């Protein structure tokens, strides 16, 4: 809790009257499986009413949260009060809010409301979650955060739940009119063909398959054993009545593999449509906003200066379709599996559009004029060292099971060598006045770059092999990097070059202020 902010200048406001229903639904999602199991499989004479009692307790808690939750606008902060017996007061300065996420599910749309999350840098959870506000109030709150975070200090007035913002000496009515008439600048839109391309190049279908397997596994081991027994019996009956030659088995296996891949792509296409339908990236001053989603509509925004690092990705299917993906890491709370943080500026877009976005959002970096430096090829074989233990383990396991045929797994070694040489040939790095960037990968290519002002830590590491071959690896750390984000590092540089880059960056970081 921050105590140096001014007291609220206006009366406190409650959430939407139906907010308790959405809190109840969110809580029921966590207990829906045990409640259903208890209702259908519990003993009717004793435990049949326990699910209803549990739902009643959750409903009372939801109503309690509604009646004890308040929010108000202070001079330069948002004040949130909650609780009655155990009271909580949060004073959130507008300058601390790095990301604003507005979510609208199907149920939200029915009632004309939205859920708002306010996030700060590095937090494991949002600074405040307002479940729920009217859609007008949610968008007005987003506008307030954007304008107040940019202005720094101005008077704020909120005569009612729909808040009017005064900025730079402008009255509340004039500020509302200015916010309504200032149209954001669209930078990128995704159409139907873009959704088709995204469904083709992505492997999001495996997410649905994994979710289905996880849900099916909750039914217990008996159902699994019965299913496998039936499949085994059907297979033995069919195999006994049909004797195919080897070429028919191969053709059948290939056809089954093709069918599986087709189903996975169709699932990926379905998920791409659900998640990215109506995708629009827009810019309003220094703030970027992304809107997307078919059933659940997401609207998330963050200041341009909150972007810490950039990743440009190009897989094999991307290259065939002449597309790329542009992602960013922002200085806001990161939780795996949640899409509320601004992360994807371009889920899929032509190469020219990705380069244009980088040029517009990072004009001082001179992306098109970067002078890339290659990494020496003499250490190419070190890039395949991480795959050797897996090849050995797979070879041993297959040899125990199949005998001499298991040694065929060693055929992967030539491919690993080819891939390592190709990666070393393509690897590169560049260091300019405002930008540091690395280029890695061959089959799956990526460019990872960040502004020099956003670097938080430097590490120069040397393994025994590095000391033997007089090389080093330079690691560059930024805020907000996700667990699945590529590393920003320059690997296997000659030690003299790595040390020179390390000293130059250390000197630059010492004299420059860190910009969030």
From TrEMBL:
Pfam families: bPH_2. It comes from the Bacteria. Signal peptide: none annotated. Residues 66-143, 276-341, 425-503 form the YdbS-like PH domain. InterPro entries: UCP026631, YdbS-like_PH. Keywords: Membrane, Transmembrane, Transmembrane helix. The chain crosses the membrane at residues 20-42, 48-67, 246-277, 387-415. This is PH domain-containing protein. It comes from Novilysobacter avium. The lineage of its organism: Bacteria, Pseudomonadati, Pseudomonadota, Gammaproteobacteria, Lysobacterales.
């Amino acid at each position: 809790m921050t105590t140096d902010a001014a007291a609220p200048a206006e009366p406190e406001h409650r959430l939407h009257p139906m907010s308790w229903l959405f809190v109840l639904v969110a809580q029921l999602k966590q207990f829906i499986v045990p409640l259903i199991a208890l209702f259908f499989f519990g003993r009717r004479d004793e435990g049949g009413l326990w699910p209803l009692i549990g739902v009643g307790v959750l409903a009372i808690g939801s109503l309690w949260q509604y009646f004890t939750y308040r929010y108000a606008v202070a001079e330069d902060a948002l004040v949130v009060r909650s609780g009655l017996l155990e009271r909580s007061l949060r004073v959130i300065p507008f300058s601390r809010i790095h990301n604003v996420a507005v979510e609208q599910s199907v149920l939200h749309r029915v009632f004309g409301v939205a859920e708002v999350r306010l996030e700060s840098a590095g937090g494991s959870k949002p600074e405040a979650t307002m479940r729920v506000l009217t859609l007008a109030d949610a968008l007005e709150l987003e506008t307030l955060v954007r304008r107040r975070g940019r202005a720094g200090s101005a008077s704020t007035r909120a005569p009612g739940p729909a808040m009017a913002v005064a900025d730079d000496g402008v009255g509340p009515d004039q500020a509302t009119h200015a916010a309504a008439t200032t149209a954001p600048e669209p930078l990128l839109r995704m159409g139907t063909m873009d959704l088709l391309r995204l469904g083709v190049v992505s492997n999001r279908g495996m997410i649905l398959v994994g979710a289905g397997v996880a849900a099916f596994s909750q039914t217990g081991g008996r159902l699994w054993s019965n299913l496998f027994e039936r499949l085994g019996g059907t297979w033995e009956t069919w195999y006994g009545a049909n004797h195919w030659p080897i070429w028919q088995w191969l053709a059948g296996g290939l056809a089954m593999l093709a069918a599986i891949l087709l189903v996975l792509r169709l699932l990926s296409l379905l998920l791409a449509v659900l998640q990215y339908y109506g995708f629009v990236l827009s810019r309003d001053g220094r703030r970027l906003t992304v809107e997307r989603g078919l059933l659940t509509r997401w609207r998330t925004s963050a200041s341009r200066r909150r972007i810490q690092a950039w990743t440009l990705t190009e897989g094999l299917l991307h290259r065939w379709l002449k597309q790329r993906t542009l992602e960013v890491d922002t200085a806001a709370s990161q939780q795996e599996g949640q899409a509320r943080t601004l992360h994807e500026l371009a889920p899929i877009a032509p190469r020219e559009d990705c380069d244009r976005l980088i040029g517009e959002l990072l004009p001082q970096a001179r992306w098109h004029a970067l002078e890339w430096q290659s990494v020496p090829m003499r250490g190419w074989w070190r890039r395949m060292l991480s795959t050797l233990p897996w090849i050995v383990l797979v070879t041993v396991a297959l040899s125990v099971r199949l005998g001499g045929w298991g040694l065929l797994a060693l055929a992967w070694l030539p491919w690993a060598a080819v891939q390592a040489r190709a990666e070393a040939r393509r690897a590169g790095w560049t260091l300019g006045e405002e930008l540091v960037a690395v280029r890695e990968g061959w089959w799956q290519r990526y460019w990872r770059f960040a502004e020099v002002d956003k670097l938080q830590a430097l590490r120069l590491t040397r393994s025994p092999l590095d000391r033997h071959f007089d090389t080093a690896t330079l690691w560059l750390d930024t805020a907000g990097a996700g667990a699945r984000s590529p590393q920003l590092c320059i690997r296997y540089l000659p030690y003299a070059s790595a040390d020179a880059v390390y000293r130059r960056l250390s000197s630059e970081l010492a004299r420059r202020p860190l910009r969030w």
